[in-house]
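Exercise 7.
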Amino acid sequence: MLFALLIQSFLPRRVIEVRCLIQSIVDYCGNAGPELFELALMLVNNLGGSITLLQVYAALIRVFIELSMFEDALVTYIEAKKIGVELQLCNFLLKSLVKRNQFMYARSLFDDMKSTGPSPNVYSYSVLMSMYTHGDKPCLEEAFDLLCEMKIRGVKPTAATYGTYLYGLCRAKQVESAWDFLQVLRQRGYPCNSYCFNAVIHGFCNDNQVHKAMEVFDEMKKGGVVPDVHSYSILVDALCKQGALSLGSNLLDEMERNIVSPTLVIYSSLLHGLCKAGKVEEALELFECLKYQGFKHDQITYSIVLHGCCRHMDIEVAYGLWIDMVNHNFVPDVYNYTSLIYAFCRHRYLKEALGLFELMLDNKINPNIITCTILVDGFMKEGLISEAFLFLDEVRQFDIVPNLYTYKVIINGLFKGNESDDLWGFFGDMIKRGYIPDVVLYSIIIDGFVKALDLQEAFRLYHKMLDEGTMPNIFTYTSLINGLCHDDRLPEMTPLLKNMILEGLTPDRIMYTSLIACYCKRSNMKKAMEIFREMKNGGISPDTFVYTCLIGGYTKVRAMDFAELLMEEMETKGLTPTVVTYTDLIIGYLKTGDEKSAYRTYHNMIQRGITPDAKLSCILDLGNDADVDNSPKEKDVS
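Solution. The predicted structure, written as tokens, is:
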């Protein structure tokens, strides 16, 4: 009663005052009920017709929605229906419920509108369509039923309705179905616009089928639908992510011809693509050019170019851009700090990187695991292994826990620092912390043991990974086979190769090269040629190193005819022989007493601009000041 007297005493005179008073009424009553509706009626009566009861109910519904009191909003809606609610208010409430993921209430409201009115219009159906087609798991069956229901009720879908349905299909990874549906719409003359085509273009791009997206784009233009800025934005971004920068630039040119103004978002995609491709100088040039064109760079564009400079440019360029960004009142975030810390570590400025890390902490920006892993790598590269572990202990206060990549960095550092004795203890600690080693981590450690000439430990870990149920990959097998080759333990390679094939792994270029080099070293040219043919049949083209191994192998067994054939084949394929290739051939000719061919090969090498190395100079008795046009004098090479 007291609140009612206050309403009478302080009647509002302006709209804003009315809204504030309605908010106060809700705060006083706490929920929708008889007391609230009584006060609402009192307010209307005392305002002398300047506001209707329906307007008060609408304002109450808005307040309840803002307070997330959805049930109270629906109770108020039911009360409003007693005096005749308008469709506009129903659609507002419907959209508000859908926007806030109150799907059960939204569906209940929609059913009530169909049964007791006001009848849903195309906007109502489009709102409900968005409810069914958004989220991680679109309800496509319900969405399609909604389209059918619209047809039955004589409500014609708009392009926006169809576009929303198409986006739903694409979110559900049914992009081909979406494209088929869009083509049917076009054939039947149903409304569709750039929004509909953009849905399918976006779907194909998300599915990494940019070529299909370009086909839809072309059909869009052929059908007379003019692409908008979003059409171009989607495609430029997808093309640049795939590294098709020229095609992305062509679309920008097309935009200018069609008088469609590119946005900073589109240019950000191109900047990101250029930086990713290592074309940072071009990115910087475009970055500056955009300034002169009147674009105001945001933190996103600064971050993109800064990251590119930190990865590929001199530290001075990266730091200069950092200063420019700060001078434009952008506050560096953890991503920016991490980029610059990486640049300092890349150039071996660990002290400066740590200084920047301290500045980051002073500015209340907590590091992430990427930041800390970069610094751990920096410590490792400087041989400061104890300091790296101490640093990891210190950053635990920020809830930084090493991940698998951090462990990989540490393991690489331990091997490079000849601290492999500590590795098993560290490996055990990692497992205690709950990290299950993956095949990549196992392979890194195995490769480290192989390079440290500790095959026993390498195979010990190989058997451990098998026992743990982790299947080796091609890198694992390549490392082990390289180790066996180095130790001249060829018979042990056979079971490894069999296991690899049984697991469905196909040898790659590195594996084939290792095997060929190994058999050539043992002068087992029959086996080497078998692998060579298998390599070619598998679609892998041998490189100069492989041919040189084979030529060297044949010269060792004095089979010069085969060595010459391989040399011819190599040159036919456009591969350039190295000084090692020529040296092996010359030695082979000298071993067989064919001095004429040795001299001819030597002069061919000189004519190609290849200088004899120390080994060949010693064999041919060439002095430091020897005239390469003079005939060499060979030493005994038998």
